[in-house]
Design goal:
This protein is an alpha/beta fold. The protein is built from 25 helices and 11 strands. 33% of the residues are buried.
């Protein structure tokens, strides 16, 4: 019978375990020095080697001819453990044997001496699935087991294990295996199976596996069944149901250009080819994550897994997009992914997402959370200012200033008149007030009922509330408002009043009459 690759190529010695030196070297040292603990806890994500190391350890402690901490693999004990004929090594699935009675049976069996081996070894997989009662029943035996008993507990969710159990075990954390290590192992397996695999294809399988060697070998098994002895990147994408990288790049270009029709046409084409829309959404999130890393990191190549050609294309795309737009696209896609997982029609949700992402002429819409966008925009402005700063010297220290327009001086009456003559109503002023309400409802209430006009480099605010202009006099608040206006319009403006109190007084007929009386020498007492 055919044996699947992850079973056929399961490591038999500690030296064969990939990507876990912090575990294997420590265990070999303990075995060499005879400092064996009575209980071990192996924790980490799936497919990282917990069960494999458990089996190797169970053989190493019972091997008749151990070699430098490793089992020999040739004695009758090692062979018996491999084929399951040695009953002193017991594997228990805690997911289906999680009751108190199961643990009581284990405790009773543990009192018997081994029949063939030196130790009775109990490997309890997914130990976090045990019930509270089962954990309590295991406590005493785990703390003071018979001298011939060794416990190895394995779990993917260590936070669910009671502290009383954790304190009785020697804990080892298994890390996600790096894509390069997985790819090298896959190439070794392919050579052993007389199959050729491209390096890009091996790296793609490693990226899909997300640090799990077992998942990588399972996918490789499928690719071998589909290929004719040569595994290419295209075969891996077809087998895994992934969109081609060129499709992701084209979709991003469509979003950047605001071309929702082209985006929806690509969705239709992928859907007809049995592409799962939730998977497409997840891939787009991953693609925009890569663009975000390229935009923010000096050496993103170290953690981004893709071919050199694709990396060059993606990097060019990243440099052409603002960071705030990339972050905004990720947030919109994540929201759509959550709706798909809750049962929404996946194709319709993906098409709606396409329209949202392409809704603005400028391309990708800004972040859904204005506060995030403001912070990202502020970071970009600060970085731009720092690039233009002179180098720091021993004699001078300069701090980068905000890159905003200088504070507007109050225009003269003649200038004010010209500004009003050229002013046009600002249609997006209600949106400005709405954005202000998100960080200060009180300030927004002060601007309720106000109007605004654009004239040259000014936004002129017209309101009959004095509190409105008291807010404008505060530098921090004024800068915040100018940032909000820039976020919505893409332009920087000075802020000012549409008209000032002294101008209103001059235009008031009563004020003019009183002024004339005073000029004639008439004493006038002004009362309210």
């Amino acid at each position: 019978m055919y044996r699947v690759l992850y079973r056929k190529y399961r490591p038999r010695f500690f030296a064969d375990v990939i990507g876990q030196p912090q575990v294997t070297e420590t265990l070999k040292s303990e075995l060499r020095n005879g400092r064996l603990a009575h209980a071990y806890l192996f924790t980490g994500s799936r497919g990282t080697g917990k069960t494999t190391c458990s089996k190797i350890l169970s053989k190493a402690v019972n091997c008749l001819n151990p070699k430098d901490g490793d089992p020999c693999g040739e004695c009758e004990i090692c062979k018996g453990i491999d084929d399951g004929s040695i009953l002193d090594v017991v594997e228990i699935d805690a997911a289906s044997n999680n009751g108190v009675d199961d643990i009581r049976t284990l405790r009773e069996e543990a009192n018997f001496t081994p029949a063939n081996a030196r130790f009775r070894v109990y490997i309890i997989d997914e130990v976090h699935m045990l019930s509270i009662g089962a954990f309590n029943a295991l406590l005493k035996t785990l703390e003071e087991p018979p001298e011939h008993v060794l416990f190895i507990l394995a779990t993917t969710e260590v936070h669910k294990i009671p502290a009383t159990i954790l304190s009785r075990c020697q804990r080892f954390d298994f890390h996600r295996i790096s894509p390069r290590d997985i790819a090298d192992r896959l190439e070794f397996v392919c050579r052993s199976e007389n199959v050729e695999i491209d390096d890009n294809a091996a790296l793609l399988v490693a990226g899909i596996a997300d640090g799990a060697m077992r998942d990588a070998l399972s996918l490789l098994d499928q690719c071998m069944g589909r290929s004719d002895g040569h595994i290419t990147e295209e075969i891996v994408r077809t087998t895994a149901g992934l969109a081609d990288k060129s499709h992701l790049l084209q979709i991003t270009e469509a979003i950047k250009a605001g071309d929702s029709a082209h985006f929806i046409e690509m969705i239709d084409s992928l859907y007809k080819n049995s592409k799962d829309m939730a998977r497409l959404c997840d891939e787009l999130i991953g693609h925009f994550r890569e663009l975000m890393l390229m935009k923010t990191m000096k050496q993103p190549r170290n953690i981004i897994v893709m071919s050199e050609d694709d990396f060059a294309k993606a990097n060019e795309q990243a440099m052409s997009l603002p960071l705030a737009d990339i972050v905004g696209a990720i947030e919109i896609l994540q929201g759509s992914q959550e709706k798909m997982l809750r049962g929404a029609n996946r194709r319709i949700e993906m098409e709606m997402t396409a329209v949202k992402l392409c809704s603005k002429k400028s391309g990708i819409p800004a972040a859904a959370d204005p506060s995030i966008e403001n912070r990202v925009a502020a970071i970009e402005r600060t970085l731009a200012a720092m690039k233009n700063m002179p180098q720091r010297t021993e004699t001078s220290v300069r701090v980068p200033a905000r890159t905003v327009l200088p504070s507007a001086k109050r225009p003269s009456s003649e200038e004010m008149k010209k500004l009003r003559e050229n002013a046009v109503p600002m249609s997006r002023w209600p949106e400005v007030i709405e954005e202000i309400s998100k960080f200060s409802p009180i300030v927004a209430a002060g601007f309720a009922g106000s109007k605004a006009y654009i004239s040259g480099r000014y936004v002129l605010v017209d309101s009959d509330k004095d509190i409105c202009f008291e807010h404008l006099r505060k530098p921090d608040l004024r800068d915040r408002m100018r940032d909000t206006i820039k976020m919505l319009t893409g332009q920087e403006y000075n802020l000012g009043r549409y008209s000032y109190p002294d101008e209103q007084k001059e235009d008031d007929p009563l004020s003019a009459f009183i002024s004339n009386l005073k000029a004639s020498g008439v004493s006038v007492e002004e009362n309210s």
